[in-house]
Amino acid sequence: xxxxNVLLAQEVTKNIEFKTGRAAGNTTEKxxxxxxxxxxxxxxxxxxxxxxxxxxxxxxxxYHGATSASLTVGFNGVEIEDFQKxxxxxxxxxxxxxxxxxxxxxxxxxxxxxxxxxxxxxVKGPIASQAEKxxxxxxxxxx
Length: 143
Known about the structure:
- The protein is of the alpha+beta class and 143 residues long.
- It is 22% helix and 25% strand.
- The strands form 3 sheets. It has a 3-stranded antiparallel sheet, with helices on one face. Strands 1-5 form a two-stranded parallel sheet. A two-stranded antiparallel ribbon has the order 3-4.
């Protein structure tokens, strides 16, 4: 067995000059702090997994003895309104956190004036859907 450890090092003999501002390819921090911190939340969706399915198989020996097991677990008695409330609460916490950081929000009406959103369709919540993914519930906030 051969073990090897190689260490490579380089000695720096002169002062290092770090570029900041426009020379570094970005704006200076002073300019960024003066700008309005506006944000537009294009979409906000929460996916809840309602059904979990798993299976396992083994094969052993010359004669290939086999075993298999499967498991399906799902929620019972939980209403869609409960998931909608959790989504609404999560959205409020998220937007409150951003507001505390100094962000202001653009409305969908404000954003519709931008060219990138010209052909977009506006959808109002609440929407809860089980059609997109089997075993999942997707929700968007009420507001």
